[in-house]
């Protein structure tokens, strides 16, 4: 989960090809969507395997291949999901902008620096594949469409025929990409289960009344996963719209396959479709998209 965290006192959590029919509502009150069809170089998001030799990205020793592959923007209804572990890759620092590199050096060694480097470099490495340019040529814009602030908006590359969303924990980074030529948008969220989290307190603050009524009916052992499933769906939707926490999470209902927020005046009228993603052990993940998904294709960058 990135980019839309509340204040510390109330901080919530950090092979088929056919479409599946919607599942009935689960005991948590949220729809329990079956997985959309999957296809790609890795069999499961939780266990990324090696990509092909022609794939674009860094090699194991940090070099950039000279003949990288080019990816076409995903077709409507398809989302490319890239997953990679967060770790220090010093060679990737060459891909950072001047301000990003200075920030990375200021943070110093440790998880925060590794996360910054992995996220900002991987965004350029991934998007470059769809634009058929070098990663150094990719400029990511982050101005907010709602308030005009220059640094806290949803990431995008002006003029690109793709839309993407980024999320991370201190262990994993996820980038979701959809074809954007028709205006399609995507939001993604990945978060880690934390045994020390005050799940009941956070649920009271961030779930809608109907969501919370279903939540409190659950046995205690089931509540952490149920809450986190709801939270990543809310975050994915808020990332797609660009609202962040300017839209109160407790005003966004994610029980159904669509995210709705009738009390938020600036919430888009376009339907926001929610999709659960398989995630690494101890994590939960979700996508929000303006086009309903029929397939998720999974990829990872070379190590």
Count of strand segments: 8
Computed Rg = 19 Å
* Unreliable parts: 2-11, 14-28, 31-35, 37-67
The residue-averaged pLDDT reads 79
Secondary-structure element order, N to C:
EEHHEEEHHHEEE
Helix content: 10-25%
Task: Describe the 3D structure.
Helix content is 21%, strand content 17%. The protein is of the alpha/beta class and 303 residues long. Helix 1 (98-107) packs antiparallel against helix 2 and helix 3 packs across helix 5. Mean pLDDT is 79; it is low at 2-11, 14-28, 31-35 and 37-67.
Q: Quick summary of this structure?
A:
This protein is an alpha/beta fold and 303 residues long. Helices cover 21% and strands 17% of the residues.
Write the layout of secondary structure elements.
Layout lengths: L36 E4 L37 E8 L12 H10 L3 H21 L30 E7 L3 E8 L6 E7 L6 H8 L2 H7 L7 H19 L31 E5 L5 E7 L5 E5 L4
Parallel strand pairs: 1-8, 2-8
Antiparallel strand pairs: 2-4, 3-4, 5-7, 6-7
Helix pairs in contact: 1-2, 3-5
Defining key terms:
5 helices; three-stranded antiparallel β-sheet; five-stranded mixed β-sheet; alpha/beta; single chain; disordered N terminus; 303 residues; globular
